[in-house]
Amino acid sequence: MSLVDQLSRPLHDLRVSVTDRCNFRCVYCMPREVFGRDFVFAERDQLLTFEEIARLASSFAKLGVQKIRLTGGEPLIRRNIERLIEMLSKIEGIHDLTLTTNGSLLTREKARALKNAGLNRISVSLDSLDDEEFRRINDVDVPVSKVLDAIDAAHDAGLNPVKIDVVVIRGRNDRTFVDIARHFRNSGKIVRVIEYMDVGNTNGWQMKDVVSGAESRDLIAREWQLVPVDPNYFGEVAQRWRYADGAGEIGIITSVTQPFCGSCTRVRLSAEGELYTCLFAGKGRDLRGLLRGGANDDEITNAIASTWRVRNDRYSEIRSEATLGLKKVEMSHIGG
Ligand code: SAM
User: Fold this and answer.
1) For ligand 1, which residues put their CB under 6 angstroms from it?
2) Which of 32-41, 65-74, 235-244, 318-327 shows the lowest mean pLDDT across its residues?
3) Which secondary-structure segment (H or E) carries 324?
4) What predicted TM-score, i.e. pTM, was given to this entire model?
């Protein structure tokens, strides 16, 4: 019998954060005031090793996971990530292996190495094409040209379709994100417009900062007619639209205004081996302790299955003033 949670949701996707560190200090994700010099990141021996991640991934695959996304922090900071990709790509049942990056370390050579190791696709985060605005957002002075080069490198290496993830925030990039859609029309790359979410407790999120997916879509549709497209599979987070003139496709991700908890098939593993069944959870289940305590494969698989079976979270559907104050894991800890 297939594994489902309390709300009959199957387990299909695993997101693995390979590090809690990032070389960007995006003002809405890892603000410098919080993640500054004094911030204590995980020590090396606290991070799961590649062997530990691969072992857990095999257990997840046995339970129905078919897709793995590597994230962070910034996943390309983790040295030799290709070695992990190679290990994961050999696991039976894993059909889709992808990675989310800020692109700053994605050279042509790196993109080719990732592809050769077995990575299928890549998503690159990019919130503005305006160089000044982009530098203000990443807060470490990385120019936008670097990320644009990375996107081309990924495309040329065959990590397709490359997705460009854009978080739209009122008063920051809500007037300029349509330029990103324009830039990537006719390129084969897919821009995905993401609502700003109340993840973590450090970014000072307020509902008034959220630009709804509907508003973002309308702003794009003012320029080019859009036609809805059916989802690729159950649980796909992005609503798909294509340009009527054939210039390609975009995605709209509305986790705040139109939550999709009912079809959430995702589980997340932090860099330190905690298992989270929700992006907005306050606490995870420690799998590293099990691994390092000598648990065998069946015990590990059972621990994961029992966590999934009792899962009943649906934070985005019950989001309210009352839930906003709950303690939640930071995005940099479990990735997007
Ligand atoms: N460093 C990698 C990157 O930049 O893609 C991976 C980790 S980053 C946390 C993953 C994604 O989460 C990025 O696209 C980022 O913009 C997004 N993100 C961070 N905080 C967010 C928030 N509050 N709401 C929506 N997306 C957010």
Assistant:
1) 22, 28-29, 71-72, 74, 100-102, 125, 165, 167, 194, 196-197, 199, 203, 331-332, 335-336
2) 318-327
3) helix 321-324
4) 0.97
